Amino acid sequence: MNIAIIGSKDFDSLEFHLNESLSFLGHSTVIYDIKDVVPLPYKYNFYLQKFSTKYTSFLFKKLASMVIDRCPDLIICTYRFIPPEFVLAIKKAMANVKIVQFNPDALTTFQEQQIFVSPYDAYFTKDPFIVDFMRSKMNLAAFYLPESFNQRVHNYRLEDRTSLESKIDIDVVCFGTMYPYRAQMVKFLLKKGIDVKLFGTPDSRFPLPEIEAHFQNEFIAGERKAEVLLGSKIVFNNFHYAEVESVNAKFFEIAGIGGFQICDYKRIVDEYSVIPSRKFTFKHIEEAAELIQHYLKLPEERHRLASEQKSHFLQHHTYDVRMKQMLTILELE
User: What does the pLDDT look like over 216-238, one tens digit per residue?
Assistant: First the structure.
């Protein structure tokens, strides 16, 4: 099948993994990035669109022309700021092509709600709450599709776990953008005497002095991400507050890599996990600290649970599995 993806070409992005997985499954795929039209850094392109409807129209008119020239069988849109006229132009030029919105992010990322007024053939999202809202309140063809991980990219050839933990030398790791909610939780763990190492982007607006010394000044992705997460004794994964009935992509990456995570409790975790959620989830930050302190003393138990989870996620929660599910829903497979 000939498939076009509208989104970022950055390594380890959602679009990167959709493209890699669909290509692996035998489809002909290409990503169309807004930087293909105007080669500006993403943030500049984004803000130009926020303040200029003419710029947005120009940008997506060009993108639509590029996509139409390819004549794809399926178009997957991941940007949340795509204007409705892009979708309308595609449908006018190619009446039989299916164009879908693939948005597995939290519900705070709906931008100006362009998604809701664009005539996509299907909407895929990870949160049962928003799926129900889109279906029951707006009568949209919304479908539940959880996040996933890429076993070919999120992978590290492990020889001996104890040796790797000794090499990485991290009790608890937390990675990603250090938003204020995440920083406050890390600050609490540090006060409890738990040594947390931080990978990712510090908060430049509201930095907490108490956590600054714990940043490792490294952004991790791909195999390096797998090495750090697998080599850390515990991965602290605190979900964004907008995860109403859903979990983040990290949840799947950590488990698929084989890392041992402590994360927020969500009822839906029981749907994804092969091990009982009570063993690795918390409802309040004090409970998170207790679980971390408990498992730091039990390396064999951590390794056993992580191994069971990894095997389960390799079977049920890869991008390959999700892409097959999506194509089945669209009746294209």
Answer: 999 999 899 999 999 999 999 99
pTM of the model: 0.94
Q: In this predicted model, what pLDDT tens digit does every residue of 294-320 receive, in sequence order?
A: 999 999 999 999 999 999 999 999 999
> Could you write out the three-class secondary structure of 131-148?
HHHHHHHHCCCEEECCCC
196 CA to centre of own chain:
22
Least Cα distance to 149 among 12, 242, 298 occurs for: 12
Using CA atoms, how far residue 15 sits from 8, 77, 115, in Å, is 6, 9, 17
Give me the CATH topology for the region 2-148+318-329: Rossmann fold (3.40.50)
Domain 161-316 is of which CATH architecture? 3-Layer(aba) Sandwich (3.40)
Starting at the edge strand that comes first in sequence, how are the strands of the sheet with 261-264 ordered? 196-199, 172-175, 234-237, 261-264, 281-282
- Span(s) in the chain for CATH 3.40.50.2000: 2-148+318-329, 161-316
